[in-house]
Amino acid sequence: MAGEDANTTTNAAATVTTTTTTYSSPISSTGFTFAGTPQFFTTQNQNRNLGEIPTYTQYTGFPTLPFEQNGEYHRIKNALTPLPKFEVGSDVEYFINSIKFAKQILRPEDEAMFLIQLLQKFGPKARCAVETILSEIRTIDGLITKLRLSFGTRENLRQILACMSRTYQAEGESVVDFATRFRELQLKARCRLETAESEDFGITMVGVAHNAREAFYAGLKPDIMKMMYGTNPDTFDDAVGFAITCESKLREAREIDVLRKRAANKGVHKARVNKVDAYSEDEKELIESFQAVKIKATNAEKKQARQPQKGKEKRKQKGDSRERKPGRPDKSKSKCYRCQQIGHFSWDCKAPNPIPRQF
C-alpha cells in the first residue's frame, strides 16, 4: 500500500490534522484517494464502522482489498466475479438479480466495501450516474431501488395493468405459455410497485394480484373460459391450474370426437373401444350413450323393414312380379294382339276381347 502524506494547519484555537491516503488500483497505475483516516482500510482497527462509506475527493481507480481482513476479501471477490458488465441499455432486472445473488454471499458488514468495488462493473456512461447513486446510499437494497429508478422502464403501474387487460391467448398457444407471459407482466408490476410514484398511488400488491387473475381469465380462449365458468380461484396460480385442467379435458374430448367419426364411417372396432377405457368415467358414459343411440337407430331400421307395406310402396320395394326375364321380349316395345296398343302384352290387356269365345 502507498504511503501517507500529512498536512498540519495551526491556529490560535486548535490544531487540526487531515490525513490523505492513496491506494493503488488493480486496473490502473493511479490511486483512489480518500479524505479521512487511514485506519479505514487497515487491519489494526478491527472494530471499524464499515456501514459508512468515506467520501472521496478524486476518482482515479479502484482500491485494492487487503488479504488480511479475515475472509472479507474472498467474500467480496466471489460476489463480484459472476456479475455481468452493465452498460446504458442493458437489462437492468437481470443485473439486479445478479446483485441479489451476490448479496447472499456477503455479510452485512461487507456491503459498504462491495458497493465501492461494484463500480468496476459499470460501463463509462453508466458509471457517471452510478457514482452519484453510491454517494447517496449505504446498502445494496438502496442501490437496487436507485438502479430501477435510473435505468428501469418508465412505464407506470397503471400502464402495466392496462397492458395485462389487452393480453389474450393466441391461436395454438398453450395455457402454460400464456401464463408465462402473464407472469412476466405480473413480475414487472411488482417491481414497479416497489418504486411506486405519485401516479401509482392507491394500488397495492393485493390489487395487482387481483387484476392479474381477472385479466388472465378474460384473456383465455372462449372454450376454456366457458369451462371455467363458475369456478372461483383464490390466486393467480389457482386460476392457471384450473385453466390447464380445462385445456386437458378439451383435448381428450376432441380425441373422443375423432373416435366417434371413425366409428361412424368404418364401424366400431374392438381395439378402438378398448382404447377408450383409459378415459374418465364421464367420458366413458358419453361413449356408451353414443353407442346405445346408434344401436337403437339400427334396430328401428330393421323393424321398419320387416313391417308389411301396401299399394305402390310395396310394389316399388318388391318390384313387378312379372318383371321381364332374360330372353323374354320387352313389353314396352311390344304390341298387344287384342287392342293393338303398344306397351303391354295381351294377357295384361284390359280391353274386351273382340273375338267371341267358342265353346
Automatic annotation (TrEMBL):
Name the keywords, alphabetized.
Answer: Metal-binding, Zinc, Zinc-finger
- PROSITE patterns linked to this entry: ZF_CCHC
CCHC-type domain mapped to chain residues:
335-350
**Disordered, as annotated region:** 298-337
Gene Ontology MF terms: nucleic acid binding; zinc ion binding
Listed Basic and acidic residues bias regions: 318-333
Superkingdom, taxonomy of origin: Eukaryota
The record's section on Pfam families has: zf-CCHC (PF00098)
According to UniProt, the name of this protein is CCHC-type domain-containing protein
Q: Which organism is it from?
A: Bracon brevicornis
